[in-house]
Write a structure and sequence with these properties.
This protein is mostly helical and about 400 residues long. It contains 17 helices and no strands. It is globular and about 65 Å long.
């Protein structure tokens, strides 16, 4: 059991990371109105600004934190990030101006290294053939947090707009203490490398990681796939309300079912799937399943059919961990933090681009003046993007394992 404690800590860290976002979402509209004294429209604008700031900080500092973990170790980066995260939530719980909320999101974005560093830690302790399956555990933990966050945030919101922030701070602090006692360091002198600032920035990290054979294409696929997959959190609530007449309760329930499905697939099913068909075939199969799901959701007109498609949409999530496993085995042992930090930056850029792309598509095809009424158009756009990912992936040579630098 002692050997399992570090893995448990890593998975709890990822749960808290994903849950922390959903935990505060139910109160953000009321909180912003509270500190600004304006209506819901202005609150939505400020909410978008705060989300963009958070993603921008992840993009700018993801490679820096990843490189720091390659130099100083995963343990200090993870524990310090959790401690700062706890203080950041306290700051936001006490904030009474929009500027303090902005500062909180800046700090939060910089310290959102927990997931990328957790992935690097998991890569450190995994055999090459186990990496994709273990990345699936991280995906499952993220799915659990995705389900628990909004549910718990909604309950805590009954105690006031600040309650979810105090709860998130307590969870981060408790996990930091847990990690202090159970988490051993995995970065040894064999794989430790000097910190080079020319590589500890987004452009330098992209250039260095992209120089590895095949990784440039794989990073492109990661970016486009993340944009395509963002259609679920990006427009699902609006799509459900417009197409099926769902209220907030039904929308929350459908998202919870989706999160549970991903947790089951990535936590329980991905390992036997990988053992049977291998990582490369798993990427192609997952992307193909996603295309089918996107097309069906693009034209579906009844809510129960959309819910019935949940197992199919969840099964498509095998592509992510399989792709991540291929990239991790390509990078050297002393580049795992840098790689995961670069992936964090890629995902951050996708998170900036995707909301604008999918919501504008939804608006255009539901506008009264438009002759074509198609609320599912964003899903069809995601299908086209995913088909492009398949085409690029099958043209990508099998990358070779890199040596430590």
């Amino acid at each position: 059991m002692q050997n399992c404690l570090p893995v448990i800590f890593i998975l709890i860290t990822v749960v808290i990371d994903s849950m922390g976002i959903g935990l505060i979402m139910p109160v953000m509209p009321d909180l912003i109105q509270e500190v600004e004294g304006q209506g819901i429209g202005a609150a939505a604008v400020w909410g978008g600004i705060l989300a963009t700031i958070f993603a921008a900080m992840q993009f700018l500092f993801g490679p820096t934190v990843g490189n720091l973990s390659d130099r100083y170790g995963r343990r200090p980066v993870l524990i310090i990030s959790l401690v700062i995260m706890a203080f950041d939530y306290v700051l936001m719980a006490l904030a009474h101006t929009i500027w303090l909320l902005i500062i909180g999101r800046i700090i939060g974005g910089i310290t959102a290294a927990t997931q990328s560093t957790s992935a690097a830690y998991m890569a450190d302790i995994s055999k090459p053939e186990e990496k994709a399956a273990n990345f699936g555990l991280i995906g499952a933990a993220f799915g659990v947090g995705f389900v628990l966050g909004p549910l718990l945030g909604g309950v805590l919101a009954e105690f006031g707009t600040r309650a979810p922030f105090w709860a998130a701070a307590a969870l981060a602090a408790a996990n930091a203490i847990f990690g202090y006692y159970v988490l051993p360091e995995t970065v040894t002198d064999r794989i430790r490398r000097p910190l080079e600032w020319r590589r500890a920035n987004p452009l330098g990290a992209f250039k260095n990681i992209g120089a590895l054979p095949g990784l440039k294409r794989l990073m492109l696929i990661t970016f486009v796939y993340t944009v395509a997959f963002f259609v679920y959190p990006g427009v699902w609530a609006y799509f459900g309300a417009e197409r099926f007449g769902w209220g907030p309760g039904m929308i929350g329930l459908s998202l919870a079912v989706f999160g549970i499905g991903i947790a089951i697939v990535q936590g329980l099913l991905i390992k036997p799937i990988l053992n049977r068909i291998g990582e490369r075939n798993a990427v192609i199969a997952g992307l193909s399943i996603d295309v089918a799901a996107f097309v069906l959701l693009g034209f579906v007109t009844q809510g129960w059919i959309a819910l019935a498609l949940t197992p199919l949409t969840a099964l498509g999530s095998i592509a992510g961990p399989a792709l991540q496993g291929i990239m991790s085995r390509t990078a050297a042992d002393d580049q795992q933090g840098e790689l995961q930090g670069t992936v964090t930056s890629i995902n951050a850029v996708a998170t900036i681009v995707a909301p604008l792309l999918v919501t504008q598509t939804f608006w255009y095809f539901t506008a009264a003046e438009n002759t074509i009424y198609l609320p599912g158009a964003p899903f069809l756009l995601s299908a086209v993007l995913t088909i492009g990912c398949i085409f690029v992936f099958v043209q990508t040579p099998r990358p070779k394992r890199a040596r430590a630098m």
